[in-house]
Amino acid sequence: MMKYTFNFIISLSILSISNAIQQSTYIETDFIEDLTKSTLSSTRWMDYTTPQPFQFDQSNKRWTTHNPAYLQLGVSLPNNPDNAKGMSLRLSQSYCTDAGSKCCFSSKCSNWAGVHLQTNSCFQYGVFNIRASFKLSNQNDALFFFGIFVESGSNMDSSSVWNEIDIGYGNGPSYSSQTSFLPATFSPNENKKVFDSSSNPQYTDSFSNGYHNYTLYWMPDYVAWAIDGIVYWNSTTLSQYPTPWRCSSFRIIFRTDNGLQTPSSDHYAYIQSLQYISKSTYLRTSSSTSQKSGDNSINLQNLVFKLFFIFLSFVFI
Ligand SMILES: *[C@@H]1O[C@H](CO)[C@@H](O)[C@H](O)[C@H]1NC(C)=O
Ligand SMILES: *[C@@H]1O[C@H](CO)[C@@H](O)[C@H](O)[C@H]1NC(C)=O
Description:
Blueprint: H1 2-21, E1 31-33, E2 52-54, E3 64-66, E4 71-76, E5 85-91, H2 94-97, E6 104-105, E7 108-109, E8 113-118, E9 126-135, E10 142-149, E11 164-171, E12 180-186, E13 190-192, H3 205-209, E14 212-219, E15 222-227, E16 230-236, E17 249-256, E18 267-277, H4 279-286, H5 288-316
Bound molecules: 2-acetamido-2-deoxy-beta-D-glucopyranose (2 copies).
One 2-acetamido-2-deoxy-beta-D-glucopyranose (NAG) is lined by residues 131, 213, 228-229, 273.
């Protein structure tokens, strides 16, 4: 028995070591994810079709089982003003309370099933445009994150400093039973803000239920979060809170934050669109002055092309 436990611990630590040194397959460039299709790009995203535990290495208030059935693509989004199709996500106890111990892995069981998606690729600066709606129950502590952090599949450098950027949403007793908007960075110190019905600007349940444009600007000297074009927080780099700099995976995490078995209603999130604009594209298109230099570089490219053709015709003549 001891030996088995020992072997199990050894293989677990080998697993976490191999996770820790795993490299991303590529650095991400501009994309718009097509959420109307029935599957996600398998180049960009790690396999999400297998039920598996996530954050079981943390305190059990986080333990959640990824249930592929709680991630649906190409579905009609409820109450969407554009009648759009997109991604629907759910966090619920029902998958775990059904017979069959489907939420137990080795000796640990979670009371909640949700969603954990992560990219094969890593991201380094840029702008994320996300149009989404949230319906989080106030009966149980739940968190939804668009999270950018360095872990398995994301470290293309030799640094070991924890880097994380979150566009978070929480509800439940710990959030005064109202939906809160939770922007944060870690580098490694935590730097965060809470927006709710008593903050300025405000963020409320009814607002979170609607479809809004959430934008994250991640630049070398600041990280800013905007909703429908209004900047909620612009965190400029400080010595205690440097702007995260490491190439990091992008994740979608829908998990419990108290792990309770006490019956609670389900939590939902609906994503209409997800776009990433690289830093270079953003800087080229964001201001008219940089637009001009962008045009110049196109002219320069044309010139290089023309010279190349002139050179080719010399070679062939
Ligand atoms: C939100 O983004 C969509 C494009 O995804 C755009 O058509 C719409 O005007 C934006 N709305 C606001 C309020 O910014
Ligand atoms: C954030 O602040 C920096 C520094 O003042 C500024 O250059 C940048 O434009 C701001 N970003 C947004 C989205 O407001």
